[in-house]
Amino acid sequence: xxxxxxxxxxxxxxxxxxxxxxxxxxxxxxxxxxxxxxxxxxxxxxxxxxxxxxxxxxxxxxxxxxxxxxxxxxxxxxxxxxxxxxxxxxxxxxxxxxxxxxxxxxxxxxxxxxxxxxxxxxxxxxxxxxxxxxxxxxxxxxxxxxxxxxxxxxxxxxxxxxxxxxxxxxxxxxxxxxxxxxxxxxxxxxxxxxxxxxxxxxxxxxxxxxxxxxxxxxxxxxxxxxxxxxxxxxxxxxxxxxxxxxxxxxxxxxxxxxxxxxxxxxxxxxxxxxxxxxxxxxxxxxxxxxxxxxxxxxxxxxxxxxxxxxxxxxxxxxxxxxxxxxxxxxxxxxxxxxxxxxxxxxxxxxxxxxxxxxxxxxxxxxxxxxxxxxxxxxxxxxxxxxxxxxxxxxxxxxxxxxxxxxxxxxxxxxxxxxxxxxxxxxxxxxxxxxxxxxxxxxxxxxxxxxxxxxxxxxxxxxxxxxxxxxxxxxxxxxxxxxxxxxxxxxxxxxx
Length: 495
Fold this sequence. Notes:
Distance between the termini: 51 Å
Strand content: 5-15%
Radius of gyration: 26 Å
Number of helices: 16
């Protein structure tokens, strides 16, 4: 057999293999836009059928008899903290953007009105809202402002929560919803009031607390000064009220800055940008001196690292300091003011010398000694994670990568490219149509997984150490949100 025939045979074999691969891909990716849109509509209709006044929880048992947010919940409750009601609202807006179907805008309207009804007089939200007619009036709502005597108002709960992206996620959704449905006066009123009260909640130095009660403060009680190490501090939990501390925990202040920048981009009002910049100034003030030029998880009014919960001692944090670095970079990109970049090199140098393993850092480092420390519910400080209770060993983040290297990479890209070039590189690119067939097998799997009732069910045991919270098969908002995003992306890309 001559070489030419061998080449022809090899070419034929390659062609056959290529055709087989194409047919296999076509078989695997059989979804059409119509199939995806039908699945999205069916799943949304089911979720709306189990909503409470338009809002959502995190998890539901298959028979809907057991429900949960972070803790056990009832059929009249909704959860605010992600992945709760605002997160669901955001995915409805994304579905509307991709499909132009008013079904999703109506679902988002339900979310917006649930949040507007549940908004507190202090401007934000607790972790949950209970629409039970007997429980709903226990809180002092925005809609009740001016209708209660001071004595009646004082008896009602009115604590805005900034922890865990709670109030911030609600305001971000409401702003996005109002942008899509500008004539919704109820939602617009909630946005305007919430933003004004968030600025009011800000301390003179630019910080936000973990929680805000809506009451006026005396500025002289909160001097604007730089952070410092305390001369002494209790080594056992003093059982103090930490709700008013200046709080980086769970990226509280970073999330508040995000809300203010979002508001500034949407409405162009100087007070929103000023609020974000003021928070950035606090981040600069809150950087600890050497030998630990990063940040604490929370500070008292004297700008000293302070206790929060019994297992959260005064300490340097390897976790939330990353959120501060990202917040400073974002403010530099927004304003061009290089003062926001100056704290970052010493902070990154501290990370380089403080790793406890490759690409791993402790959540807490003892003040000045820089030794990793751990807390427990007994309010004591420990130097080995093995010495704390089993429950706390696994119920809290004591070490991790904490996206330190991603933050370092971001800083290096921004400084090497320069602000203008970096911002230009970050501009969203228009999606190109990929035709009528998916190239992502996830789309087919998502459509196939939807059951006859419009549910994506999660199998497997879920247990949380709260009495009555045991699920086998369940409905989860995290799954709904992820699947709807994938389908929305597919539909939009195919148009």
